[in-house]
Amino acid sequence: MSAKALPYRHHNHDACIADALADAKTICQRQNARLTATRERVLELIWQSHRPLGAYDVLAMLTQDGHNAAPPTVYRALDFLQQQGLVHRIASLNAFIGCAHAGTRHQGMFLICQRCNNVLELSAPDVSDAIANAASEVRFRPDNVMVEVSGVCPACAGQADGAGKTDE
Questions:
Q1: Half-sphere exposure of 52 (CA within 13 A, CB side)
Q2: pLDDT digits (tens, 9 = 90+) for 63-111
Q3: Distance between CA 61 and CA 136 in Å, rounded?
Q4: Global pTM?
Q5: Does residue 82 lie in a domain region?
Q6: What's the confidence (pLDDT) of residue 118?
């Protein structure tokens, strides 16, 4: 699967969306899961923005597209996309974001900008290991781990290139 661009840095967003849809088709085919036109469109709408979308946001966009969709249709599509590992639900926002690591088994870890609402999915094996070790020490077996960190992204902090240092 291809590496995804940082949401707050300039990148070819059309390629970002195309890669996510191509990955989804490959993953669904491999898992013998049916990626219907509606499911694919819901995924595309989610990837069109790096900001999380709520189910009713997706429904409104589908309606603008001319789809005669109802809330259960959107919720079923989102459930399917979650089950296939193509989107994540950001619990603190009650919204969905495209999975930047689709096709790989991983724990969801997200940086959420409080100003622009961009979300960046992290891959942090050390954090995952620390959580697993801490849980193991108390004989806890986690089924699902989601880490959501809110703060301010470099673009909103005035560091659009991400190269500068902050004064802390």
A1: 24
A2: 998 888 899 999 999 999 999 999 999 999 999 999 988 888 788 899 9
A3: 44
A4: 0.81
A5: yes
A6: 87
Copy the structure tokens of residue 9: 């840095």
Residues 6+ apart with CB under 8 A from 161: 9, 154
Low-confidence ranges of the chain (pLDDT < 70): 1-11, 159-168
d(Cα 79, Cα 91) in Å, to the nearest integer? 14
Contacts of 52 (CB under 8 A, 6+ apart): 90, 93, 95, 96, 97, 112, 117, 119
Q: Is residue 161 part of a domain?
A: no
Q: What is the DSSP letter of 53?
A: B
Q: What is the CATH number of the domain that holds 36?
A: 1.10.10.10
104 closest CA partner among 90, 129, 125? 125
Q: Hunting for tokens 């899961």 — which residue is that?
A: 33
The pair phi, psi for residue 82, each rounded to 5°, is -65, -45
Distance CA 161, CA 146 (A): 28
Which of 88, 37, 89, 87 shows the shortest CA–CA distance to 65? 37
